[in-house]
Amino acid sequence: MRISGLDDAAWDSPWRAIPVSQKVALSLLLVLTALLARPWPTCVLVAAVAVAALTVARIPGRMVVAAMTAPAVFIVVGAVSATLTVGAFEGPGWRWGWLGIREADMALGTGLLLHAIAGTLGVLVLAMTTPMVDLLGWLRKLHIPASLIEIASLMYRMIFTAWNSLVLVRQAQQQRLGGTGPLRRRFAETGRLVGAVAVRTWLASTRLADGLAIRGHESALATLPSRRGNRNLPIWVPAGMIFVWGVALWTR
User: Fold this and answer.
1) β-pair partners for 99
2) Cα dihedral sign for 173, 63, 58, 229?
3) What residues have CB less than 8 Å from 236, skipping those under 6 apart?
4) pTM given for the model
5) Keywords of this protein's UniProt record, alphabetized (predicted)?
């Protein structure tokens, strides 16, 4: 998925009209519930609420799957490493050569998997419904130091600059039949790709700094606030969270 896909979905989502504070509170509650509650069935219910929220917010399912792909790799690797036992093996469970899986380790690995998936989906609820521009504006209202907000804003802009450089250089390599030779050649192409992207990004950041200096920039990089009206979260969202908390307390 393109790095701008999350931001594009947030800009187009009808949930952008909902106050940022409500979406931050929802995402934070989802993450904390996924972190502190039991994996079954609470984390499954948290994931269901997050998926339902993304569906109501009109986020395409393929985009959610694409956004979950990279975190899923780390989640699965972590769950597997917590499940497998290498070497000495004691207690009930299964064993294949030097690898063994205890029943307790299986429960631990499954719990880590459910915790991480539910928490990641909770974060995506905020990321895919709230553009960074709105989030930075909300932070200004909370009187966060302006210097911190400016650093975050510049880093956010430079991420897209670096990604654009990566796409352009990679397209140029592919047009020259890049990535089709032996492994040694492809490693060399990757090194040249990283070097070219670093240089282009550095030059772009230098031009940005020069442009701000020429314009006598001394204040904040202000952006226009959203004027799409105000609306509240659907009533089923707090009702669903209350139900999840009830299940969490009942299964303690």
Assistant:
1) 86, 96
2) negative
3) 52
4) 0.80
5) Cell membrane, Membrane, Transmembrane, Transmembrane helix
